Amino acid sequence: MAKTRDNATEKSDDDAPRLAQFESSVAELETLVEALESGDVSLEEALGKFERGVTLARQCQTLLKNAELRVDQLLADSDGERVASFDSLEESESSRASD
């Protein structure tokens, strides 16, 4: 009889490739930014690096948004109430800081 894995172990195994993808994308973005800031690239190279950076940034935003949604689901009340989104929390913190 084959052993089955519990959901927690299965979820963490599923997250590993996404985490690795996120971390490598951020590292590549940092390299692109350094190259662009150095000014030692041609205009054509700079445009290519910028285009790649935009693609990577969008991928990272998607991964972060998905992580945020998972956190919201994990923190949801047992009554089915949804917790406040991170955006709402940031807005309330920034309005308190400006008071």
From TrEMBL:
This is Exodeoxyribonuclease 7 small subunit. One of its GO terms (molecular function) is exodeoxyribonuclease VII activity. The keyword tRNA processing does not apply. Its EC number is 3.1.11.6. The lineage of its organism: Bacteria, Pseudomonadati, Pseudomonadota, Gammaproteobacteria, Salinisphaerales. The keyword Cytoplasm applies. It comes from the Bacteria. SUPFAM superfamilies: XseB-like. It comes from Salinisphaera aquimarina.
